[in-house]
Amino acid sequence: MIYLNGKFLPIEQATVPVLDRGFIFGDGVYELIPVYSRKPFRLNEHLSRLQYSLDGIRLQNPHTEKQWIDLVTRIIELNEYDDQYLYLHITRGVAKRDHAFPHGITPTVFMMSSPLLTPPEGLLASGASAVTAQDNRWGRCDIKTISLLPNILLRQLSVDEHAMETILLRNGLLTEGAASNIFIVKGNQLLTPPKDHRILPGTTYDVVLELAVTHDIPHAIRDVSETELRTAQEVMLTSSTKEILPITRLDGQSVGNGVPGPIFQQLNRHYQAYKQTVMRGYTSPQ
Questions:
Q1: Which residues form the signal peptide (predicted)?
Q2: What is the CATH number of domain 121-276?
Q3: Is 275 a catalytic residue?
Q4: Is the distance from CB of 19 to CB of 94 less than 8 angstroms?
Q5: How far apart are the first and last CA of the chain?
């Protein structure tokens, strides 16, 4: 069951006009919210990021926060999985094909649920592989736009090499993954690039940094050079669906000693405990 423009219906019955600007131009934004035991994880933070993306493309939010919370609650109820991820998709709406913003049209609002499959224990124990590529995306990677063709092409590079992710470099600096944020450990310090226009402000990225503060893990938010990435003791990616995943091979070479490192182990343990604490204490935001 999905939600489309005011109606809950089976996904097979959902249709969108061909002149929707999301279809014609990729003119829209999206958000992805993990759900554990039928409880959305850090919902307020995800809705805040959705608002940031809408502001970034100058599109008025079609719903109040309370309305979004009600819709999220309902779509979770209508789907069978206890652990889900919700995909929210908002476009500027339907209008004749013209680059300029149309006036007086209603945004298209779509929401669906899929099963949430987090990394298996075996992968967490062995670590994943990644490749690197030059970051050739546009200059506003902080907006979660549905125009994802550059990310798709970059992500496919890792698929072609049977790797988990493509880690991106711009002007000799680490930015992020094609569909994730990236942390490294260098000199026993956790490092990650700062939030700016070059990276998507990940909610799991925020959780990891909060955990680093809470548990006194040495860390810094600063530019990370390509050399630091390639000589790191540990590399890990974070995302709403992958949570925290260690990268133990990069461009065919071992990262550190080739196994998930102690900082990852510590962060992952704290992340899983934090997640359970949040879920046990969850009450629907008002």
A1: none
A2: 3.20.10.10
A3: no
A4: yes
A5: 24
Residue written as token pair 């063709």: 149
- What are the structure tokens assigned to 113, written together? 């649920």
User: What's the predicted TM-score (pTM) here?
Assistant: 0.95
How far, in Å, CA of 131 to CA of 163, rounded? 7
d(CA 248, CA 265): 13
Give the gyration radius of the chain's Cα atoms. 19
Here the tokens at position 73 are 């609650």
Nearest Cα neighbor of 145 from 59, 203, 68, 204 is 59
Residue in 66, 96, 144, 186 annotated catalytic: 144
Token readout for 284 is 């629907």
Tokens 């990262």, located at residue: 255
For 30, 53, 70, 148, the CA distances from 143, given in Å and listed in that order, are 9, 5, 24, 11
**Cα–Cα distance, 174 to 186 (Å, whole number):** 14
- pLDDT tens profile 38-96: 999 999 999 999 999 999 999 999 999 999 999 999 999 999 999 999 999 999 999 99
